[in-house]
Amino acid sequence: MTQLHEGYDIPAVEAWIAANIPALTPPFTWTRLPGGHSNLTYKIVARDGAEAVIRRPPMGELLPKAHDMGREWSLIKALGPTAVPVPAALGFCESPDVTGAWFYVMGVVNGRPLYNADDCLEWVAPENRVTLAHSFIDVLADLHSLDPDELGLGDLGKKENYVGRQLKTWYRSWTASIEPAQYDDPRAHELQRYFLEHMPDQGPAKVVHGDYGLHNCLIGADGTVAAVVDWEISTLGDPLADLAYALNQWSEPGDPVLAGPGGPTSLPGFPSRAYLAERYAAKTGRDLTMLDFYVGFNRWKTAAIVHGVYARYMEGKKSAEGVDVETLRLRIGLALDSAEQAIERLEKQLGR
After folding, report:
1. Hey, what CATH topology would domain 4-106 get?
2. Which helix H or strand E contains 30, and what residues bound it?
3. 294 touches 199 (CB < 8 A)
4. Domain with residues 117-350, CATH architecture
5. Model-level pTM?
6. Residues 226-251 pLDDT 10s
7. What is the DSSP string of 235-290?
C-alpha cells in the first residue's frame, strides 16, 4: 500500500482514525475523489468493507478563511439530525501535527453531483426530473427553516447586513480587477449603487449554503438529493439571497450556453425557476415580492467573480493554457445583462 498521498501522512492518519473512530479499522485502500474546490478528498475502504471519505485543504499557503474544514465539520455535525441530508460526521482532527492540516472523516453517500447536461443524461432518468426538482428546492427550504441558535450555529457568522457586506466585498474585487483585466463596464458600478440604495430589510438570519446547486448535491439513483456537500463558505445570512443563487444555477432550455454542454436542468422535463420559487414560498411562507432584487444581486456578484478570474489570466497570474479566456470575458457581460433584466422586471412589478 502506498504510504503517502498528496496532503496525507498515511500511517499517522490511519493511527489517528484507529484511535478516534471505532467503526473504521485500518489499513485502508485510498482512492482520490474528483471535485471539491481543490480540497484533497479521498475515499478510504477498510479490509472489512467499511468505508468513509476523508477531506483536508489543499497544500500550500491558504487565505485565512479559505478551505475551512472546521466550518464544514461543524455544519455536517449540526445538520445531521435535521431534515437536511448531509454525510454522517465521523471524526474531526484539529491537530496539524498529524498530517499538516485539519481534516475530517465523513460517511459515504451513494450519489453523484451533476455538473452539466451530460451528467444528467447519464444519471437522472427522465421520469425522475420532477422528483429531483422537488427534492432540490425542498432541501433548501428545510435548511432555511432551521434556527441557527438552536443548532448551535449562532456564531457561524455575522447575522446582519449579509447582502451589504457582499456588495462591499465584490465591488472592491471589481474595482481592483479593472486595470489588470483591461476591462470595465459602467453597468457594474450602476448596479452596485442600485443595490445599495434599494436593499430590502433582512429578516432573521438563517444558515446559507452560499453555493447551493446540483454540483454540490449528491443525487441518488431515485433522483432525490441524498446529501448536500461542500459547506466551506456557508455562513449566516439572508435566505432569499441563498434562494436566488440556487435559482440562478437552475438552468432552463434557451438559456445562453457559451461552451460545452449546458447545465444539468437545461434538458426537457424539469420545472422552471418560477415553479421552484413558488414551491419554496409555499413551503416556507416567505414573501418573494423582492426576489428579483436578489436574483439581480447574484448575477452582478457572478460578474464580479468572473471579472476577477479573467483579470488573473490577463495579468499572467494563472496559466491560460487550455482556457477559453474570451468566453470568460463574454460571461461577464452576460451576467450583467441578466442582472439588468432582473432589476427591470422588479421595477416593472413594483410600478416604479
Report:
1. Phosphorylase Kinase; domain 1 (3.30.200)
2. strand 28-32
3. no
4. Alpha-Beta Complex (3.90)
5. 0.92
6. 999 999 899 999 999 999 999 999 99
7. EEE-HHHHHHHHHHHS--TTS---SSS--GGGSTTPPPHHHHHHHHHHHH----TT
